[in-house]
Amino acid sequence: MSALQELVLDQMKDLLHAEGQLVKAFPKLAKAAHHPKLKGVLIKHLEETKGQVDRLKKGFELLGEKAKAKPCKAMQGLIEEAQEHIEECKEKEDVVADLTLVASVQRVEHYEMAGYGTLRTMAEKIGNPKLVKLFSQTLAEEEKTDKLLTVVSTPLLDEANQDYEEEPEQGEEESDE
Ligand SMILES: [Fe+2]
What pTM was estimated for this model as a whole? Predict the structure, then answer.
């Protein structure tokens, strides 16, 4: 096995752990979403994520290796932060909570896109088109999810960007920074 093949395996172990964590986290993220379209994107991506775990396992099989996960601290951190934001947003307006959620999930998606993009390039280099195909499929799903998140958040951004012309209410003090 070449050093690059070993690297490919290492990267796959990292992503297997990352995806495994996401399978657990996405139901919570979807539950926290208020807008039905956002919820829909997250639920759909949960199903895709399960397929991505299977794809990685297939990749290990192709390389004649046992599927093994190696703790992905970066994804742990991203998920932890997302959960903290969900807690913080419980008191906030739905639109703000949803936009915060989108910000967290897009970070997750971009992290994965980086991972699979690198892996695909490595798989090309080691001359394994079956692996390249697997990683390309997953990469396309992550990219699509990222784009869908942008689409569903567009009206929310507009909503959050509106000035509160009727506020503050009488008797309420305006806070000056
Ligand atoms: Fe993924």
Answer: 0.89
Report pLDDT digits (tens) over 9-29: 999 999 999 999 999 999 999
pLDDT digits (tens, 9 = 90+) for 86-125: 999 999 999 999 999 999 999 999 999 999 999 999 999 9
**Residue 177 Cα, ligand 1 centroid: separation in angstroms?**
41
Quote the ligand 1 centre to 144 CA distance (angstroms): 11
State the sign of the Cα–Cα–Cα–Cα dihedral 166, 172, 173, 175: negative
Task: For each of the domains in the chain, give its residue range(s) and CATH number, in order of start.
Answer: 3-153 (1.20.1260.10)
CA of 138 to the centre of ligand 1 (A): 7
Which residue's structure tokens are 């896109």? 113
Ligand 1 center to 143 CA (angstroms)? 10
